[in-house]
Amino acid sequence: MIDGVRTATHSSRMSVVPNKGAEVWMPFVVPVRRRIGRPGPRIASVRSDDVPTIQLLRSHALLAAKILVVMGAYYGGGRLGLLSPIGAGDVSPLWPPTGIALVALLLWGPRVWPGVAIGAVLINYWPGEPPIQFVGAALGSALAPLLGYLMLRAVDFRATLERLKDVIALLVLGGMTAMVVSATFSVVSLWLAGVVPRSAFAATWLVWWTGDAMGVLILAPLLLTARYARWPREIHPYRVIEAATLLATMLAVIALALRSPEQLLFIVFPFIIWAAWRFQLAGATPCVFLVTAISIYAASRGLGSFAGDSVLSHLITLQAFSASTTLTALVLSVTISARNDAREHVQEVATQLATVVNQLDRRLRPRPEAPPYGKRDEL
Questions:
Q1: What angle is formed at CA 142 by the lines to CA 106 and CA 109, rounded to 5 degrees?
Q2: What are phi and psi of 42, to 5 degrees?
Q3: What is the pLDDT of residue 73?
Q4: How far is CA 195 from CA 123, 168, 204, 310, in A?
Q5: Buried b (16+ CB within 10 A) or exposed e, 34-66
Q6: How is residue 28 annotated by DSSP?
Q7: CA atoms of 188 and 209, how far apart (whole Å)
Q8: In this predicted structure, what is the pLDDT of residue 180?
């Protein structure tokens, strides 16, 4: 006879239940112990209400890491841009931070904008300069990429650059329109600080604006292509040979063009067209970047055709050349990609249609009638 049994569940305990004169046979109600006689290891449990906290901390840490990456990339791009100024000023013909900042906002969203702002502050601060000069340049450099991101988002921009609409939006809205803010804030602050006279205001603004816009036009397509490029599953050897031949020939031609006292930069256009026609954005954007970087280096060192004339003339020539090559490469690459996609789609639809027609032909084809039973025996 068992007077009572104490049972336990996972979440609660039940009280002792007395037996009223009934005999209960419970052979398995025994204490459970480890064989070696030692208590088992304690397992730290995570409550369900702790999971959102852990996920929140992880997301904040990831966001902080992205902000630091954007800040470092912005500052590093700014230092590279300052390495090759043309003339005695500090205006670079290509300002990489604008393209880096816009791509960071397109890929990671506006939450990483503090990294852009901090990077703009660090790269524009110089000890001993008037505060208004520093504040205006930093504010314009931080607001321009954010404005470009908002305008691109409003027109349903796709960062994959699959449509001609996306390329035009990136060039017009993200590059030319948004960088008006950066150039205006920066040059106005320089004018108020007495660095730029009123007579040179327009020329300085134009050079500043084109430098910021060129940073978007050249760096943004290159970075977006590197992020979203669709590499082929099988790379044929002849494609590798073709790409190596294109690169070596283009570099040799640009080197010869820059050594000549005549302005021969535009003879590299056939190679830009070759890269866009055969390799689309994956080949055209690196070629444009290399050609532009080499041209900027030659202009900053006064090599070849950049040895004479005025600084403003060199800037206009260089930026016109960079803009022309970029527009040609991007528009032609997207057009060829759209044509190839349309051709593949048509071939796929034709294959499916041929399969359906074959199946319908088999079903609708009249079958030979079987002879009657008696005639079949005679045969």
A1: 20
A2: -80, 130
A3: 95
A4: 18, 35, 11, 20
A5: eeeeeeeeeeeeeeeeeeeeeeeeeeeeebeeb
A6: T
A7: 12
A8: 94
